[in-house]
Structure formats: C-alpha cells, structure tokens
Amino acid sequence: MSWRGTLTFNKYISIAARATRSALKEEQRAIADKRGTVTLKWQTWKEGKGTVAEWVVPPVEEAHK
Amino acid sequence: MSAVFGRAALRQVAGARSFSSSPAPQATLRELEMRIKSVGNIGKITKSMKMVAASRLARAQNSMKYAKAYGAANNAVFEQSEAAKSEAKVEKILYIVTSSDRGLCGGIHSSVAKAAKKDIEQGEGVGKEVTIVALGDKPKQQLVRGSVGNDVALSFNQIGRAVPTFNDALAIADKIESEGINFDKIKVVYNKFVTVISYEAAFIEIYSNKALAASPSFAAYEVEGDELSGDLASFSMANAIYAGLVEGYASEISARRNAMENASKNAEEMISKLQMSFNRMRQAAITNELVDIITGASAL
Which residues cross the membrane (chain B) (predicted)? Predict the structure, then answer.
C-alpha cells in the first residue's frame, strides 16, 4: 500500500514531518510544534467570483470543562 | 492683530475674484487645539508601529537568509539540466503572487500585482493559458478586480502574521496540486529584498515535471522511474513558494518600518506647523483684547 495516488508528495512529507516532530522530547517538541501549525485559509475563484474562505487545517475545538 | 484683520480685509478687497461658493471658515483656537492633539496621537501610533516593525526585521532577515539557501539549492537541478532550453512547449503558466493581508507598508502589494499583470499582458504570459494563485488578501483584491480577474483560480489568506514556515508552503503547494491546476511552468512573483530601504518585484521560475524530463541535460541524472522527477517538481514548487513568502515577508517588514518612519516625521512636521499658527493666533487674540480694553479705558 503506497501513498502514491492518494497523497501528493508535499502532503506525504508534511505528514512525515509531523511524525518526526511528535517524536521529539517535550522541550524541543513545544518549539517544533509552533513551526508545524498551519493557520491558512483558502478559497477558489471562478470568473472573478470567490467561494467563502475556509481553513486549510480546521482548528481543533477546545474541550469545554 | 494684523493677521486676523489682514486676512479678512484681503478677502473683501479681492472678493470679486473669490471662486469658492462658501468662504473658508477661519479655524478657531479650539479647532486648532483638537487638530494638534489628534495629529499627536497619530504620530504616537505610527512611531510604535515603526518600533514593532524594526524589532521584527532582524528575525525576518535571518529567516530569509536560510530560505534563500533552500531556493538556490532548488535551482541547481534546473540549471544543471538546462531546463530553460527544454524541448517541451510552455503553453500554460501558473503565476503565484506572494504578498500578505495587511496594509500600511508602502507599495509592497501593488508592486507584485503590477509585475504579475505586466508579465501576463506584455511579457511571457502573452498568448499562453494563464492561471493565478494569490497569496494574501491585498494582492488578491488587486488582481481579482483588474484585467486578469478571470484568471485567478485560488487564493489564500491569513498570511503575513508571522515568519512563514515551510509547512505553510507545503500546504499551499499541496492544495494547488490537489485542485488539479495544470501548468508547464510556474513563476512565483515576490518582493526581493534589495536593501533595508528598497525592494523590487522579482520572479522565481520552476519547471514542471514534463519540462524537466524533456530538458537537454536531464539525462545526466540517473533517475529510476518517473516518480522521482514528479516528486522533485512538487518539492521544487513548495521550495519556491517558501523562498518567495519569506523574502516577501522581510521586504514587507522593512517597507512598513520605512513607511511608518516617514509618517511619524510628517506628523512631527505637521504638529510644529500647527503649533506655530496656534501660538500666533493666541497672541493675536490677546492683543485684540488688550486693544479693546485700552480704547475702552480711554473713552471713559
């Protein structure tokens, strides 16, 4: 089972990077995780009209106590 | 005294030549005072924005140094395999315009948007199928409303808040590919950091898988299977986007610092000018009162 065909190469290496980051020790991991968060929003355009902007990585809802 | 009477007298004498429908109101002391206060506040804001930008500049320049190294390494493959002389025809070009969401940074956004438009309408994009991806709200607004509005396919925002990470570039490149945008060549338009006080729009060129495979010296690389060159093309795109984003960020920070410095200087000049006319007016009012008192006293 390969990742080819389902994932793009860039998606593949970003997942690999995430796995590497999560293997770090606590202190280094905190610093590395800041580099890992993606807070972009995107939208598609057709003939000058755009869709509503959506998060590329949807933010995780904080669990309310 | 002469200031107040002089101006009104002049206007009456020259009344026949006055073109305004309503005469300009004479600013009262109260109004001038408020203006001085508000300009002072604006000056404070621009000064603090300048400080913030100056403090961010060092870090931005540092990141830029490393990002450029990535971009240069990326370029090595294209140069070695002479992709510019590739036999594959270039019919579809993807322009990735990198800037950011925020303003108050001088001509940063219009610089990239104009450069992209110029290349599309008069440069390499003439007669080709052009797609545009806008990174940042400001260039997006300029491009969508312009003559190339129909070519915009994707746009991203929330860019420019912090130093761009490679992860951002990967996410953008991944979305571009998964949205199925076809291209033979990519041109990343960004603001090149020339000096701390100047920048200029520049291009990074990336060749597609097809173009690379048809390059004259590509055969020198012993590549097993087609997959590797496809992976390379994808990775190159992410690399170029990263380099463009980071250098664009550094240019923007320095431009914002310069713009806010100019604004603070202008605010200071304005305050001193207003202060002068305020003092003159105050003294004129006092003199008038004195004259009234004196003439009134002599009438008794």
Answer: none
B241 pLDDT above the threshold of 60? yes
State the DSSP code for B91.
Answer: -
The three-state secondary structure class of A54 is strand
Query: For residue B114, how far is the Cα from the chain centroid?
Result: 11
Using an 8 Å CB-CB cutoff, list residues of chain B that contact chain A: 144, 149-150, 152-159, 161, 165-168, 170-175, 177-179, 227, 230-231, 234-235, 237-238
pLDDT on residue B57 = 94
Query: Are A10 and B155 an interchain contact pair (Cβ–Cβ within 8 Å)?
Result: no
Structure tokens, B96: 């990735």
Q: How high is the pLDDT of residue B217?
A: 82
Query: Which structural domains are found in chain B, ordered by start?
Result: 50-259 (3.40.1380.10)
Mutate to test the interface with B, among A40, A43, A52, A55 (most CBs of B within 10 A): A40
CA distance A59 to chain B (A): 14
Contact call for A40 and B171, based on CB within 8 A: yes
State the amino acid at position B144 in one-letter form.
V
Note the pLDDT tens digit of each residue in B142-164: 999 988 889 999 999 999 999 99
Chain A CB contacts of B235 under 8 Å are 9-10, 13
User: What ipTM did this prediction achieve?
Assistant: 0.89
What is the distance in angstroms between the Cα of A63 and the nearest Cα belonging to chain B? 24
Name the residue ranges covered by the structural domains of chain A.
3-57
Looking up tokens 């002089």 gives B6
Chain B touched by A10 (CB under 8 Å): yes
Beta bridge partners of B156: A42, B135
pLDDT in tens, A17-44: 999 999 999 999 999 998 888 999 999 9
Q: Is the dihedral of CA B47, B52, B53, B57 positive or negative?
A: positive
